[in-house]
Amino acid sequence: MVISSKNQMQKAKLKTSPTKATLKLILYKTLLQPLWLYGVVIWGSAKKSNKRTIQAFQNICCRIITGAPWYISNNAINSDLRICSVNETATIYYKRFHAKIIFQPQPAHQGPCYTSTTRKSN
To answer: Which of 68, 86, 92, 120 has the fewest CB within 10 Å, making it most exposed?
Structure first.
């Protein structure tokens, strides 16, 4: 998965911005997270390498937000920021989506979806 130049610019804003970590976290959750979160429900068949790329992107953003040094684990940073991993997020969204599908009422059969038209005979 290639990160577009727009994402790189937004990531650069996180890195150079002198704002507080809470504001940076809000920026991440509103601008960057929805980009990879879109379509997360169908990731069950995605390759592990693709999921790892997205997880690496999230880890880099979280590390930039906190300014954490290299020796602090990504799990510690994610738990401090209260951010779930990509796999956990995918599982949550998958369960929500399928719970909604199961309990959707099925419409009663109302006949054909088309209207019959009569032809003119010549």
So the answer is: 120
Helix axes 48-66, 86-102, angle to 10 degrees: 120
Backbone φ and ψ for 17, nearest 5 degrees, come out as -75, 135
Instruction: Identify the CA nearest to 54 among candidates 66, 69, 38.
Output: 38
CA distance 53 to 44: 15
pLDDT in tens, 96-122: 887 877 766 666 555 555 555 556 655
Q: Is the pTM of this model over 0.70?
A: no
Q: Which token pair is 43?
A: 């990731």
Half-sphere exposure for 14 (CA within 13 Å, toward CB): 27
Residues in the chain, overall count = 122
The residue written with tokens 């956990």 in the block is 88
Predicted confidence (pLDDT) per residue in 39-88, tens digit: 777 776 678 888 888 899 999 999 998 989 999 999 999 999 999 988 88
Question: What is the C-alpha separation between 13 and 29, in angstroms, rounded?
Answer: 14
